[in-house]
């Protein structure tokens, strides 16, 4: 199950990389490359931090080929899709949720504790999107007004609690994924963000 969830996450982030690149009028090679970097970047950073060798997509080239094929297919199909921004946000949310939980599962399988696993899930979930946004010169979603990393953190903590205290509950991963997606979509639709007292406002200091 973890393997196929990882593949779905690869497809989702590869698609968002292509959509983001398409807005910058890149050629097909650059677009596919960006899709692959977006799809594999978070997991690569995770494996480097955990010193997991070889890196997941080198150990199994299927991940690389899935990212490439998804990017190429998206390049030829996405131009016919209307309301592309909404598609981008939804797929990014789905990919982030899957990457967060699968990264936690891998960290746990390598013998790490729950605290480290939650951090690995958070880093993996947001890193691919950050790389994509930086390379396309757009404002990273992490720096946007709505919650982005917070839903990933909440979902990761929920999964850790369920996995630790209800070991027989086989749908813990699904609860984690659903929590991330739900909170992220609520943040988007209802413009949820931290209250003013939890934000740092430089303008006030300068005034």
From TrEMBL:
Coiled coil: none annotated. Residues 4-78, 90-163 form the Glycine transporter domain. It is found in: Cell membrane. Its main location: membrane. The keyword Electron transport does not apply. The chain crosses the membrane at residues 6-22, 29-49, 55-78, 87-108, 114-131, 143-162, 168-187. It comes from the Bacteria. GO terms for cellular component: plasma membrane. It is a multi-pass membrane protein. Keywords: Cell membrane, Membrane, Transmembrane, Transmembrane helix. PANTHER family: INNER MEMBRANE PROTEIN (PTHR30506), UPF0126 INNER MEMBRANE PROTEIN YADS-RELATED (PTHR30506:SF3). Belongs to the UPF0126 family. This is Glycine transporter domain-containing protein.
């Amino acid at each position: 199950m973890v393997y196929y969830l990882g593949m779905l996450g690869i497809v989702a982030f590869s698609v968002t990389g292509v959509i983001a690149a398409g807005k910058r009028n890149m050629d097909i090679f650059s677009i596919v490359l960006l899709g692959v970097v977006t799809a594999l970047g978070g997991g690569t950073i995770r494996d480097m931090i955990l010193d997991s060798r070889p890196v997941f997509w080198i150990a199994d080239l299927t991940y690389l080929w899935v990212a490439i094929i998804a990017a190429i297919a998206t390049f030829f199909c996405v131009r016919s899709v209307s309301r592309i921004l909404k598609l981008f946000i939804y797929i990014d949310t789905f990919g982030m949720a899957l990457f967060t939980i699968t990264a936690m599962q891998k960290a746990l399988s390598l013998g790490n504790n729950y605290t480290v696993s939650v951090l690995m899930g958070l880093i993996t979930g947001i890193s691919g999107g950050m790389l994509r946004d930086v390379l396309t010169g757009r404002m990273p979603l992490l720096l946007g007004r709505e919650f982005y990393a917070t839903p990933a953190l909440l979902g990761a903590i929920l999964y850790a609690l369920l996995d630790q205290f209800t070991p027989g509950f086989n749908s813990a991963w699904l609860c984690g994924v659903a929590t991330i997606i739900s909170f992220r979509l609520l943040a988007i639709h209802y413009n949820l963000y931290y209250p003013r007292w939890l934000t740092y406002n430089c303008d006030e200091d300068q005034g």
